[in-house]
Design brief:
Blueprint lengths: L8 E5 L4 H12 L3 E6 L18 E5 L5 H10 L2 E4 L6 H6 L1 H21 L3 E7 L28 H20 L3 E6 L2 E2 L11 H10 L4 E4 L5 E2 L2 E2 H9 L10 E5 L5 E2 H11 L6 E4 L1 H5 L14 H7 L7 H21 L1
Helix pairs in contact: 1-7, 2-4, 4-5, 6-8, 8-11
Length: about 325
């Protein structure tokens, strides 16, 4: 048990999201008193329902834009994990204004209040930061290469970049202790629903129902898939690490996998009868989306400073995730 977190009051914004809910699991296991804030616009209440009878878990259904509510919570808590955001390909190509309002205004609200009460913030950013930089693997100080502002696909990346600028500025100007994580394709039980745009959520749901596995494009684009337990290990390692303050870390597995390879692995692990099909991205997302050919993290910095070492292979991670997909499919048929 982490004595640095035991009996501490910890605030998790976006705690009913995929990564946030698993973070809450670990914090409670480590003896923390957890306060979760989520407006359920993208998170799901069911992800934290298993903690409702835990006296150390406190759920507030509210937006991070509500300054009064957030101030009351931040004043009382010892540590903040800011993981709330509007996320998902469908949302940032259809509701870019909402993405901007919540991700930028809400995050500034958090940093203002954290500075006021001198509370440490561990912030959830994204591998989307790098855009379509052709140089891989991506190190934390590598360039960002984005498409035109007329392509809504880049609004999420841009809001997260503004968040990082804010985080670093508050650290440099006011001494706000903070750490930034850039996550690379996290997956596992309770992964967001298929509409979130997470490729494992989409293909996994199709495979469990023996529906065609739809791959956007030719399937040669690559990603690095990181099992959720490895992700949370990386996050937890930064809690009391003084070297991590004011720094940015890639949190991901550096094993590169094509989407076609992913589909074949899911089909094999899930023992699915699905066929693999290919679709044009415009059929799914229209003209407001651009794909990224390769997304590969350099994790040397996280290894050196955090001791981060992802160990779960894609196949093993999918095996651990399969029971959740089976349960979700069963529950969906009951509705």
């Amino acid at each position: 048990m982490n004595n640095k977190i035991k009996n501490k009051k910890v605030l998790v914004t976006g705690g009913s999201g995929f990564i946030g809910s698993h973070l809450i699991d670990r914090l409670l296991q480590e003896g923390a008193n957890v306060f979760c804030v989520d407006d359920f616009s993208t998170g799901r209440k069911e992800k934290t329902f298993h903690h409702l009878n835990n006296k150390n878990f406190h759920l507030t259904a509210e937006t991070i834009l509500n300054e009064k509510v957030m101030e009351d919570l931040i004043r009382e808590c010892d540590l903040i994990f800011h993981f709330a955001a509007v996320v998902g390909v469908h949302l940032y190509v259809t509701q870019p204004r909402k993405v901007l309002e919540v991700n930028v205004d809400g995050t500034k609200n958090i940093f203002d209040l954290a500075t006021k009460y001198n509370k440490k913030v561990l912030f959830s950013s994204t591998s989307e930061i790098y855009g379509k930089n052709p140089k891989v693997p991506w190190a934390e100080n590598d360039d960002r290469v984005l498409g035109a502002t007329t392509i809504d696909r880049w609004v999420y990346s841009s809001t997260k970049a503004i968040n990082e600028y804010l985080c670093l500025a508050y650290y440099k100007s006011y001494g706000l202790p903070s750490v930034i994580f850039r996550f690379f394709n996290a997956y596992g039980p309770r992964i967001d629903e298929p509409g979130s745009g997470r490729v494992i959520a989409i293909l996994g749901a199709q495979a469990i129902q023996n529906k065609p596995l739809t791959i956007i494009g030719d399937g040669k684009q690559t990603r690095c898939f990181t099992y959720i337990d490895d992700v949370i290990d990386g996050v937890m390692s930064a809690i009391d690490n003084e070297q991590a303050i004011g720094e940015i870390f890639n949190i991901g597995n550096d094993k590169e996998t094509t989407i076609l390879e992913l589909a074949k692995t899911i089909k094999r692990v899930f023992k699915s009868k699905s066929e693999i099909t290919f679709v044009d991205q415009k059929e799914i997302y229209g003209n407001s989306y651009e794909d990224i050919p390769r997304r590969v993290p350099c994790i040397d910095k996280a290894r050196h400073i955090l001791g981060f070492n992802p160990t779960t292979t894609l196949e093993k991670g999918l095996e651990k995730t399969l029971p959740w997909f089976k349960k979700e499919h069963y529950l969906s048929k009951q509705k």
